[in-house]
Write a structure and sequence with these properties.
mainly alpha; extended; about 50% helix; Tc1-like transposase DDE domain-containing protein
Length: about 90
C-alpha cells in the first residue's frame, strides 16, 4: 500500500517500480489522499515515535539511528508487550 507521496506516483515517468511489481506479482495499492491511517505500517511508526523519538534530543543522527535500531530489535522480541500493543491498536484505527 502506498500513500500519495509524490515519489510513489512516478510509475508513469519511471517504469522500474511498475516492472518490478509486475515481475514479482505485487499490486501497488494507493490510499486516498489524507488517509495514511489506512496503511497498517503507520501504526508501527506511531509506536516507534513513542518509544524512541518523543521527548528526546539525540546528540547526532547516528545516535538517533542507533536508538531506532535498538527499538526495532526490542520490538521484534516483545511483540506481546502490553504498552506496545496498546499504542499500535490506538494508532491502527482502520
Amino acid at each position: 500500500m502506498c500513500d500519495n507521496f509524490s515519489p510513489h506516483l512516478t510509475t508513469k515517468k519511471d517504469k522500474r517500480v511498475g516492472q518490478w511489481a509486475e515481475a514479482n506479482n505485487v499490486e501497488i495499492a494507493y490510499t486516498p489522499t489524507s488517509s495514511s491511517y489506512l496503511n497498517r505500517i503507520e501504526a508501527q511508526f506511531t509506536a516507534l515515535r513513542e518509544f524512541t523519538l518523543n521527548g528526546t534530543d539525540h546528540a547526532s543522527h547516528r545516535d538517533q539511528g542507533s536508538m531506532i535500531r535498538r527499538y526495532i530489535a526490542w520490538r521484534n522480541r516483545n511483540v506481546d508487550n502490553p504498552r506496545l500493543r496498546r499504542i499500535v491498536k490506538r494508532a491502527n484505527v482502520a
